[in-house]
Structure formats: C-alpha cells, structure tokens
Amino acid sequence: MAQRLWITGEHAHQRLAAARARTAVPLVAPIDAHRRRYGPYTATNTLFTALVPDLLATSPELVRRHDIEVLSVAPDLRSLVPASRETLTSLAVPAERTRFYSRVRTLRLSHGLVELLRDHLRTLGGPRRTLVLDRLDEADPTDAEFVSVLLRRLDPDLLTVIVGTGTGPLDDALTVALDRYAQRLEAPPVPFPDPPADPARAYVDADCCADEPALLAAYAGLDPDHRRRLHARRAEELLATGLRSPRLGAVPHHLERAGDPADTGAKALLEALNYCVDMGFYHATLDLGRRGRAAVDRATQEGPWWAFTTKMTTSLSALGHPEEAEKLYDEARTLSVNPIIHRQAAYATAMIYTRHRDRADRDHLRARAWINQAIAIASLQPEGADRSFSTVFQQNGLALIELHLGNLPGALDLVSAGLDRLDEELGADEHRLHRSVLLHNRAQVLAALGRLDEALADFTAVIADDPNHPEYHFDRANLLHRLGRDDEALAGYADAIRLGPPFPEAHYNRADVLAGLGQLEAALDDLSYVLELEPDNVDALVNRAGLYAVLDDAAALRADLDAGLALDGDNPHLLCLLGQSQAEQGRAAEAERSYRRALAADPRAVAAWSGLAALAFDAGDPSAAVGHLDRALAVGDDAALRYNRATAYRALGRYDDAVADLARAAELDPTDEDVRRERSECDRALSLAAGH
C-alpha cells in the first residue's frame, strides 16, 4: 500500500470508506478537519487531544518538551499538561497585551508537533500506524500548514498518512505537498447511509459540517424559528462542556444563527477573535472579524465594531497585507469621531509605513506624521496612568521610526524616557510586558550604537524579568558573540532553542559560532536541522556548502550547490564555492566563468576576486593575480589576501612590495607562522639582491 494517500471525492462518506479499505492499524479514529468544529487547528487539536493522555503516562518528558506546542493547539489539555514556560506575553491581561506573535509562529508550532509525533511513533514501535485526516479543503490554514509539514518531514515508514479532500479550494502549500508526497486516488461512489430520524437536528448536532444531501435538505426546509432553537440548544450543549475548543468554532457559528447575532452571536465571535489574535492565529481572526463586523451595528455598537476591525487590521499586517489594513483604518477614520479609535488607527498606520510595507514602499517620514498625531491625541487624555502608558506606547513607536531614519541617539532618548516615566508613574506590577519591550528595544539601540556593555546589561535585565522568552536569549547570544564571548553565546543559543518551538535562526547563528570555533561537525548538524525546517533557506545552503568544502565532501558540496543555485542562480556566495570546487578539479575555464558570474552579481565578492587571482597565478600570470587581489583588498583589508598578494609580488621580483604586504599581514594576524616565514624569505631575497 502507498504510504501517503490523497483521497478525493465529493462526499466525506465516500472518502472515509476508501480510507477504511486501506487502514491497517489506526493511530486514532479518522479526524474531521472542518474548521467549523474547533476553529484553528481543529484536526491537530483532535489528534493530540487523543494522543497526549497516554503520552503523559508513557513519555511525560516528551510532552513537557513540547508543552508550548501542545497547549497552543489543544487548549483543553491545560488540565493535564502544565504550562512550564510561560512568558510575559502569554500571561499578559488583555488590557496590557502590546506584543503579538510573528506569523511564522504557527509554522514553528507545526514543526514541534511533527517532531513530537515522530518521537512518539518511534517509542511506540510495532506495526506502522495509519492516520486519516478528512475535510482538509474545509480546514483552517493552521491545519493545512501542519499537514504540509507532516507530509514533508515525517518518515512514511513510521506513519501512513491519508488525506481526504472534497471539492473546495485547497491551501496552496498543502496542494504542493500533496502533489509531491502523496498518491492521488478518487474515492469510488458508495451509497449514502440511511438518514437519522431527525436529519435536521443531526445536521445541527454535527455543527453543520455534514454533507449528506438528506441532512442538508432537511435543514434547509426548517421553519426559521425551529432552526434558531436547534442552534441555540446546540450552543448551550457545547458551552455546558466547559471546553474552550468549541468556543473557537462551533459555538460562534451556532450563536450567530440562534436568534440574536448582534448580541450573543457577536459576544461569542469577539471571545474567539480575542483568543485567536493573541495566539497568532491570524487567518481565523480575519474570518471572525469579518463575521463580527457583519453582525453588529457600527452606529450603536462602535466598541465591538472597532474591536473586530482593529484585530482584522493587526492580522492583515501580520500576514503581509498592510494595504488592506490601511483601507480599514481609513474607513474607521471616515466613520468615527472617537479619539481612541483615531489614536489607535494613527499609531497602527505609522507602523504600516515604517514596518509592514515592502521595503521599497516604506515611508518613514509619513510614518512620523502619523505617530505624531497619535502622540498628540494621547496627550489630550485625562491625567493619570492611562495617559502615561498611552503616551509612552506611542513614543516607543516614534523611537522605532527614528531608528529607521538613522537617528539612533533620538531613538535611545525616547525609549529611555519612556522607561523612566513608567517607573515613576505606574506601580511595579503594571504593564510589565511593555516595560520588558522597552528594555529590549533599548538594548537593541545600544547595540546598534556600539555601546555593547550597556546593551548586554539591558539584555540581561530583560531576561531576568521575562526568563522564558526565547528571542531575548537569542539576541543576547548574538551580542555575546560580537563581544567574543563565544562559550556564553553558545549557552544563550541553547537556552533560546530550549525555551520554545523549533527556532531555525538560533540554530543558524549557533552554527556560525561553532564553525568559528572549529567545531565543524556540530555546525553541520545545526545547519542540516535548519534546512530540515526550511529547505529553501539559501543562506543555510551557502554555509553548509562551505563546511562541506572544508570537510572535502565533494558529493555533499555539489548537492548543496545544485539545490542553492536552483533557488538563487545568481547567488555570489554559491557561485564562488562552485568556482573553488571547479578549480580544485582542474576545470579552470569553468571556474573562471563561475567567478565572473559571481562578480556580475556582486562586484565586491572578495572570494571571486581571490579565486580569479589564484587561477591567474597558477596559469603563470602573477601580474594579473596582483590586479585581482588589488580589487579584493579594495573591499576590505585582510591578512590572507595580503599574504597572497605578497606571494604574487615575490614572483614578479617586487620584494619591497611583498615585504610591505607581509608587514601589514603580520599586524592583522600576528599568530600566522606562514607570514613570518614568507617575510624571512623576502628579507633574505632583498639581502641577496643588495649584496649582488
């Protein structure tokens, strides 16, 4: 049997019948991924809710290692799985939530969950299990993302994955994964099961996810009052369970149809919306926001209307659609005279122009105009803690804009003044999250100013206040590396990796430090893991190819060069590595072409100039080699380049020039014995020439 199947068919019962015929040992019961049930991660939630109780008995440490991922997708497991790595972000009350997750967080969650599932299956042993996931065409993008990662990363010898889809549109990445990794099969027609005694109620009890024609027809034929009563009854049943998951999907759906969409329906939508935006489930937030805006009357319910609107704009910006977000802000400015709405819209529009737009479309001066408006409105609030916080919040946005404009001292003054004001005017436990944001921002500005010891002190202080925030450890590790404290940097990267879901940037940067320390195999492991997470990461391919070149692994080097150049055919680093490989194989003409291509892409590619110099020298043309090395040294002084040019000078009999280069090389790298020996040879040659 194929180890991954993609079963298509118009109706779920057809697809499930085809899946049952190919299921040997099920991992769990077939899962319906329709987002109407639990909203984001409906399928993933169902899967891990079924697996985790047994896992806690057999592999509690495995669950603990992935508790962030588990609790993010399956919130009803909180009674079983302790949250061991809370941050100020995750703990902040709604009124103090000023930081939102990156849009890539859900991808990181998916990677962590796939690794959890992989390790569980390895421990489980026995026959290969089967996992059936149906209705992926109706799934939230979070589930589509998880299944895409599952198909790509999980060894099919561990698990047979069967994905069922109907006639609806599919997520693009999921379509690519299914086309690449799964065998497609059309489900044969099978008779529909006999309808239940009350098909309309059965349809509602299935949270309106059923696709049997008899149930759909019965529901469509209901008296409107009876239909509303069925939805109200189902919502009550789901709420009575006390579970959060239905409140993200089925409960809002039913209450929108239970007779009072503008009140109970809107409240259910708002609860789900607030949860989803806080968790970084931005596609779901957009859906909930659109439905909420349709449910309420802006004129009489401006508060809920603005909540739905502004959470939509936050999500649109996070998902890379800032122009759509700005249109909603323009609409709000047109319709409302509420100063809070105008202040928040002004701040957010400033962030669109300084942060969220494509780099070519950013306009930091326009951003400053908008943020000044937000600051002006904040200054008109009544005196007190709210005005203090609001003003500092807007000024932190101005600090970011000043940073982008190159005014680092101005940015530092704004952030420092904000910290001082909050310390003076707020209680110690008020707005701890935003204080940590300000402290982290000040550390970054200090680092950019080259005040590294002060930056390190701020990074250390913010970690003391928010010890489980991985990015703080990552940023401090980067700074420690700049300071030459590489052992501490490695410990910092390890903390960043330990404290959250898979973190490719931390592995990438750690690989750089490890390579610099000569720990090439460990660096190779980190880069290989980065590429497991991000196969299209060209920078990681460049660095791994460089390690393979040092390790003389020609086959692996060639594979990475081919993969990298397929993604970025003009990448100068890859072309330089290709040229070096060709030169080592005696293919000088091909090597020269590769170096020339690299220089066409980047005229400052030092490795290309150095490579051309080596080719010229080996071809008996030291004069051309000197010319190429002149170009390389024009980019930046370097001991190895000086040494090589001295060698070419010596071949030309230009001993004085050679000695000058070697003297400078010795200044740049006093420990290089080759430089000392070459200097002695040149001095001897000069002495002989003088004596002659």
Automatic annotation (TrEMBL):
Intervals holding TPR repeats: 436-469, 504-537, 572-605, 639-672
Pfam families reported for this sequence: TPR_1 (PF00515), TPR_16 (PF13432), TPR_8 (PF13181)
InterPro entries in the record: TPR-like_helical_dom_sf, TPR_rpt, Ycf3
Source superkingdom: Bacteria
Keywords linked to the UniProt accession: Repeat, TPR repeat
SUPFAM superfamilies found in the cross-reference section: TPR-like
UniProt key word Repeat: yes
Official protein name in the record: Tetratricopeptide repeat-containing protein
Organism encoding this protein: Micromonospora auratinigra
Lineage: Bacteria, Bacillati, Actinomycetota, Actinomycetes, Micromonosporales
